[in-house]
Amino acid sequence: MGWGMRSHLDAVEGVQARIATACAACGRDPMGVGVVVVTKTRTPEEIRSVCDAAHTAGLRVVGFGENRVQEALAKQAAMHDIPLPRWQLVGRLQTNKVKYVSGRFSLVHAFDRVDLIEPYAARAASTPVLLQVNLSGEVTKGGVSASEAPRLLAACVGAGLEVRGLMTMAPEGDLDAAGRVFADLARLRNELRGEFGLPLGDLSMGMSDDFDVAIHHGATLVRLGRVLFGERT
To answer: For a surface tag, which of 63, 131, 139, 206 has the fewest beta carbons within 10 Å of its beta carbon?
Structure first.
Protein backbone atom coordinates (compact mmCIF):
# COMPACT_ATOMS: atom_id res chain seq x y z
CA MET A 1 0.00 0.00 0.00
CA GLY A 2 1.14 3.53 -0.67
CA TRP A 3 1.50 6.22 1.93
CA GLY A 4 -1.44 8.29 0.74
CA MET A 5 -1.63 11.85 -0.50
CA ARG A 6 -0.56 13.58 2.73
CA SER A 7 2.59 11.49 3.15
CA HIS A 8 3.43 11.81 -0.53
CA LEU A 9 3.04 15.57 -0.30
CA ASP A 10 5.41 15.64 2.68
CA ALA A 11 7.90 13.55 0.69
CA VAL A 12 7.62 15.77 -2.37
CA GLU A 13 8.14 18.91 -0.29
CA GLY A 14 11.17 17.29 1.33
CA VAL A 15 12.66 16.56 -2.09
CA GLN A 16 11.90 20.10 -3.18
CA ALA A 17 13.73 21.48 -0.15
CA ARG A 18 16.76 19.25 -0.77
CA ILE A 19 16.94 20.35 -4.41
CA ALA A 20 16.70 24.01 -3.39
CA THR A 21 19.41 23.62 -0.76
CA ALA A 22 21.75 21.75 -3.10
CA CYS A 23 21.25 24.30 -5.87
CA ALA A 24 21.81 27.24 -3.50
CA ALA A 25 25.08 25.71 -2.34
CA CYS A 26 26.50 25.56 -5.87
CA GLY A 27 24.80 28.59 -7.42
CA ARG A 28 22.35 26.74 -9.65
CA ASP A 29 18.73 27.45 -10.52
CA PRO A 30 16.45 24.68 -9.15
CA MET A 31 14.50 24.84 -12.41
CA GLY A 32 17.58 23.36 -14.07
CA VAL A 33 16.99 20.08 -12.23
CA GLY A 34 14.24 17.78 -13.50
CA VAL A 35 12.86 14.92 -11.41
CA VAL A 36 12.26 11.57 -13.06
CA VAL A 37 9.86 9.70 -10.77
CA VAL A 38 11.02 6.07 -10.79
CA THR A 39 7.85 4.00 -10.70
CA LYS A 40 9.26 0.48 -10.81
CA THR A 41 6.92 -1.92 -8.92
CA ARG A 42 4.64 0.98 -7.87
CA THR A 43 0.91 0.76 -8.47
CA PRO A 44 -1.02 3.23 -10.63
CA GLU A 45 -2.70 4.46 -7.43
CA GLU A 46 0.64 5.24 -5.79
CA ILE A 47 1.88 6.94 -8.95
CA ARG A 48 -1.25 9.09 -9.18
CA SER A 49 -0.84 10.14 -5.56
CA VAL A 50 2.78 11.22 -6.09
CA CYS A 51 1.81 12.97 -9.32
CA ASP A 52 -0.94 14.90 -7.55
CA ALA A 53 1.42 15.81 -4.70
CA ALA A 54 4.07 17.01 -7.16
CA HIS A 55 1.49 19.14 -8.96
CA THR A 56 0.29 20.63 -5.67
CA ALA A 57 3.83 21.46 -4.52
CA GLY A 58 5.07 22.64 -7.91
CA LEU A 59 7.89 20.09 -8.11
CA ARG A 60 9.45 19.98 -11.58
CA VAL A 61 8.65 16.41 -12.61
CA VAL A 62 9.77 15.71 -16.18
CA GLY A 63 8.80 12.06 -16.50
CA PHE A 64 7.94 8.68 -15.04
CA GLY A 65 10.92 6.30 -15.17
CA GLU A 66 10.34 2.59 -15.68
CA ASN A 67 12.99 -0.13 -15.66
CA ARG A 68 11.15 -2.69 -17.77
CA VAL A 69 9.31 -2.07 -21.01
CA GLN A 70 6.48 -4.53 -20.36
CA GLU A 71 5.73 -3.08 -16.92
CA ALA A 72 5.76 0.40 -18.43
CA LEU A 73 3.31 -0.55 -21.17
CA ALA A 74 0.87 -1.96 -18.63
CA LYS A 75 1.01 1.23 -16.55
CA GLN A 76 0.65 3.42 -19.61
CA ALA A 77 -2.56 1.56 -20.47
CA ALA A 78 -3.85 1.91 -16.91
CA MET A 79 -2.96 5.62 -16.76
CA HIS A 80 -3.80 6.72 -20.28
CA ASP A 81 -5.67 9.76 -18.96
CA ILE A 82 -2.48 11.32 -17.60
CA PRO A 83 -0.61 12.93 -20.52
CA LEU A 84 2.21 14.31 -18.39
CA PRO A 85 4.77 13.68 -17.10
CA ARG A 86 5.97 11.61 -19.98
CA TRP A 87 7.29 8.07 -19.67
CA GLN A 88 11.02 7.41 -19.78
CA LEU A 89 12.97 4.15 -19.80
CA VAL A 90 15.65 4.14 -17.10
CA GLY A 91 16.51 0.43 -17.18
CA ARG A 92 18.56 -1.56 -19.67
CA LEU A 93 16.85 -1.86 -23.05
CA GLN A 94 16.74 -5.33 -24.60
CA THR A 95 17.10 -5.49 -28.37
CA ASN A 96 13.79 -7.31 -28.80
CA LYS A 97 11.97 -4.51 -26.94
CA VAL A 98 13.18 -1.68 -29.19
CA LYS A 99 9.98 -1.95 -31.24
CA TYR A 100 7.98 -0.65 -28.26
CA VAL A 101 9.99 2.52 -27.70
CA SER A 102 8.79 4.86 -30.44
CA GLY A 103 5.72 6.84 -29.44
CA ARG A 104 5.69 5.35 -25.94
CA PHE A 105 8.82 6.78 -24.33
CA SER A 106 10.21 10.31 -24.46
CA LEU A 107 13.77 9.36 -23.47
CA VAL A 108 15.91 6.24 -23.05
CA HIS A 109 18.46 6.72 -20.25
CA ALA A 110 20.52 3.56 -20.48
CA PHE A 111 21.70 3.24 -24.07
CA ASP A 112 24.81 1.20 -23.46
CA ARG A 113 26.01 -0.85 -26.41
CA VAL A 114 26.74 -0.74 -30.11
CA ASP A 115 24.53 -3.70 -31.03
CA LEU A 116 21.46 -1.64 -30.08
CA ILE A 117 22.17 1.01 -32.68
CA GLU A 118 20.98 -0.72 -35.85
CA PRO A 119 17.58 -1.88 -34.51
CA TYR A 120 17.10 1.42 -32.67
CA ALA A 121 17.85 3.50 -35.76
CA ALA A 122 15.37 1.40 -37.73
CA ARG A 123 12.50 1.47 -35.25
CA ALA A 124 12.96 4.22 -32.66
CA ALA A 125 15.26 6.87 -34.12
CA SER A 126 12.86 9.68 -33.18
CA THR A 127 13.30 8.97 -29.44
CA PRO A 128 16.43 10.59 -27.96
CA VAL A 129 18.86 8.66 -25.81
CA LEU A 130 21.41 9.12 -23.06
CA LEU A 131 24.57 7.04 -23.11
CA GLN A 132 25.09 5.04 -19.93
CA VAL A 133 28.67 5.15 -18.69
CA ASN A 134 29.99 2.89 -15.94
CA LEU A 135 32.45 4.99 -13.96
CA SER A 136 32.34 3.03 -10.70
CA GLY A 137 33.85 -0.11 -12.18
CA GLU A 138 31.14 -2.25 -10.57
CA VAL A 139 30.29 -5.29 -12.69
CA THR A 140 26.70 -5.20 -11.42
CA LYS A 141 26.13 -1.88 -13.15
CA GLY A 142 25.63 -1.45 -16.88
CA GLY A 143 27.23 1.04 -19.20
CA VAL A 144 30.32 1.48 -21.31
CA SER A 145 33.62 2.54 -19.82
CA ALA A 146 34.81 6.12 -20.16
CA SER A 147 37.33 5.02 -22.79
CA GLU A 148 34.58 3.31 -24.85
CA ALA A 149 32.15 6.23 -24.67
CA PRO A 150 33.58 8.18 -27.65
CA ARG A 151 33.23 5.13 -29.90
CA LEU A 152 29.63 4.55 -28.85
CA LEU A 153 28.77 8.23 -29.28
CA ALA A 154 30.36 8.33 -32.73
CA ALA A 155 28.41 5.25 -33.81
CA CYS A 156 25.13 6.71 -32.51
CA VAL A 157 25.72 10.01 -34.29
CA GLY A 158 26.67 8.17 -37.47
CA ALA A 159 23.37 6.28 -37.35
CA GLY A 160 21.38 9.50 -36.92
CA LEU A 161 20.41 9.03 -33.28
CA GLU A 162 19.85 12.05 -31.04
CA VAL A 163 22.15 11.74 -28.03
CA ARG A 164 21.07 14.24 -25.39
CA GLY A 165 23.71 13.50 -22.80
CA LEU A 166 25.07 10.91 -20.41
CA MET A 167 23.79 8.77 -17.56
CA THR A 168 25.53 6.92 -14.74
CA MET A 169 24.88 5.05 -11.50
CA ALA A 170 27.04 5.67 -8.43
CA PRO A 171 28.15 3.19 -5.76
CA GLU A 172 25.56 2.79 -3.01
CA GLY A 173 26.20 3.91 0.54
CA ASP A 174 29.32 5.98 -0.12
CA LEU A 175 28.67 9.66 -0.84
CA ASP A 176 32.36 10.44 -1.38
CA ALA A 177 32.62 7.73 -4.03
CA ALA A 178 29.36 8.92 -5.55
CA GLY A 179 30.73 12.44 -5.77
CA ARG A 180 33.80 11.19 -7.62
CA VAL A 181 31.64 9.29 -10.11
CA PHE A 182 29.41 12.30 -10.72
CA ALA A 183 32.39 14.60 -11.17
CA ASP A 184 33.92 12.14 -13.63
CA LEU A 185 30.70 12.02 -15.67
CA ALA A 186 30.54 15.80 -15.87
CA ARG A 187 34.20 15.90 -16.92
CA LEU A 188 33.62 13.22 -19.58
CA ARG A 189 30.62 15.12 -20.91
CA ASN A 190 32.75 18.23 -21.31
CA GLU A 191 35.44 16.26 -23.13
CA LEU A 192 32.90 14.73 -25.51
CA ARG A 193 31.33 18.13 -26.13
CA GLY A 194 34.71 19.43 -27.24
CA GLU A 195 35.46 16.40 -29.39
CA PHE A 196 32.08 16.08 -31.13
CA GLY A 197 30.69 19.62 -31.00
CA LEU A 198 27.41 18.42 -29.49
CA PRO A 199 25.46 20.07 -26.63
CA LEU A 200 25.03 16.85 -24.60
CA GLY A 201 22.94 18.97 -22.27
CA ASP A 202 21.63 16.29 -19.92
CA LEU A 203 23.40 14.51 -17.10
CA SER A 204 21.14 11.84 -15.59
CA MET A 205 22.71 11.01 -12.25
CA GLY A 206 21.66 10.86 -8.63
CA MET A 207 19.06 8.76 -6.86
CA SER A 208 17.24 8.92 -3.54
CA ASP A 209 20.31 8.82 -1.29
CA ASP A 210 22.76 10.91 -3.30
CA PHE A 211 20.89 13.30 -5.59
CA ASP A 212 22.06 16.31 -3.57
CA VAL A 213 25.65 15.37 -4.44
CA ALA A 214 24.72 14.82 -8.08
CA ILE A 215 23.18 18.28 -8.29
CA HIS A 216 26.41 19.78 -6.98
CA HIS A 217 28.22 18.16 -9.91
CA GLY A 218 25.74 19.31 -12.54
CA ALA A 219 22.91 16.76 -12.70
CA THR A 220 20.02 17.93 -14.86
CA LEU A 221 17.95 14.79 -14.28
CA VAL A 222 17.67 12.98 -10.93
CA ARG A 223 15.96 9.60 -10.76
CA LEU A 224 13.92 9.35 -7.56
CA GLY A 225 11.78 6.49 -6.31
CA ARG A 226 12.01 5.49 -2.65
CA VAL A 227 12.39 9.04 -1.35
CA LEU A 228 9.01 9.88 -2.94
CA PHE A 229 7.08 6.66 -2.46
CA GLY A 230 8.52 5.31 0.77
CA GLU A 231 9.97 1.84 1.25
CA ARG A 232 8.52 -0.97 -0.86
CA THR A 233 6.30 -3.36 1.05
So the answer is: 139
Q: How far apart are the first and last CA of the chain?
A: 7
Q: What is the pTM (predicted TM-score) of this model?
A: 0.95
Contact present, 115 and 81 (Cβ < 8 Å): no
Every domain of the chain and the residues it spans: 5-229
pLDDT digits over 115-144, tens only?
Answer: 999 999 999 999 999 999 999 988 889 999
69 SS3 class? helix
Residue 182 has pLDDT above 80, yes or no: yes
Surface-to-core class of residue 230, CB atoms within 10 Å of its CB (0-12 exposed, 13-18 middle, 19+ buried) = middle
Q: Is-contact 175 210, C-beta < 8 A?
A: yes
Distances (CA, A) of 211 to 48, 102, 130, 207: 23, 29, 18, 5
